[in-house]
Amino acid sequence: MKNNLLQIETFDVNLLPELQGLKERQFQIVRENPFVEINDNKSYEEAKKVRTVLVTARTDIQNQDKLIASKIKKFREAVARVGEELISITKPHEDKQQSEVKRWEEIKEQEKQEKIRLEEERKVKIKDAIDLIYKKELQKIETLLFETIDTLKIDWEQNLFKTNLSQFEEFELDFTEKLILLKNQFASKEQVLREKEEQRLESEFLKAEREKIRQELESLAFKKARHEEELQAKEQEAKKIREAEEERLRQERQEIENEKMRLANIEADRIAKAEALRKELLEAEQAAKEKAETEARAKEEVERLQVLKPEKEKIIDYLESIKGSITLPLIQDESLKKNLQEQLIRLMKLFQTQFQ
């Protein structure tokens, strides 16, 4: 019974009925249709026949292959259906068991994640505690004064340096590093504060020295000022004596100048009076001469006017005769006409005045 089972992996495909005799037939076709070299039309036609036989042999095999493939496909489909039937027997049990395994794995994953979360919280809590201590002590350093340096040292000796490291578990090294960092920062801060304190003491010393020098300078200045006041008083006294002597000499010079001025004024007054008398005589002489010349010219003018009187009377009579006979031009503008009349009257009066 077992020997009758089909062993696919050892099955010889040459045993398929569809392939029986084909290999011998292909060799026979090759023998019966040798290669034809074309030299002319006859050989050309013979070569085409051989080619057609060979092509037909190939296509027959290919068609047979497609037939076998179709049968194998149907066989594969039948195998697949049998496989599905067989799988359907165990698949519901597989799915149920898979769900159970997945449920359990999810529970375990949740437990794993919870452990990870708790572990992370533990680590964060320890790190936060270390950071809190570090920031608190760092704040003390930042606000440290020179006067509180020893106080902070004592505080650290009694508290910070006695911290229980076991509470930090695997992060003891982190706390130790923070502690070293704090010590270094404290040392730097202490150095800065001590340098500032030294500078402050030096500044106060220099300030005291400057104050001492200032007081000494003030004392010297006071003595100098008092000495200068004494010298100034002596100079003022000497100045008063000198000014009094200068005033006496000035007054004497002024009296001499006044006397010179008085004498000069007397001489000038005498000269001025003599000059005035001379000018008065000259003016009187000139006035008499001008009076005589004026009287002579007046006499000559009277005589001339007497000679011209008949001629003037003729001119006045002429003017009077033509005054009423002058014909004015035709002027429409009344203001212009009036102005012309006024100018003619003024001109006539002017002529009459000149010849009277």
N-to-C order of helices and strands: HHHHH
- Uncertain segments: none
Distance between the termini: 196 Å
Helix content: over 70%
Give the number of helices.
5
> Could you say which structural class the secondary elements and strand pairing correspond to?
mainly alpha
Work out the radius of gyration. 79 Å
**How many DSSP E strands?**
0
Largest sheet: none
Amount of beta strand: under 5%
Apparent shape? elongated
Mean pLDDT: 82
Which features does this protein show?
elongated; 356 residues; DUF1351 domain-containing protein; 83% helix; coiled coil; mainly alpha
Secondary structure topology:
Blueprint: H1 22-32, H2 41-142, H3 149-158, H4 172-323, H5 334-354
Helix pairs in contact: 1-2, 2-4
Please provide a written account of the structure.
It contains 5 helices and no strands. With 356 residues, it is mainly α. Among the domains are: 2-107, no CATH class; 115-211, no CATH class. It is elongated and about 195 Å long. The model has no long low-confidence stretch (mean pLDDT 82).
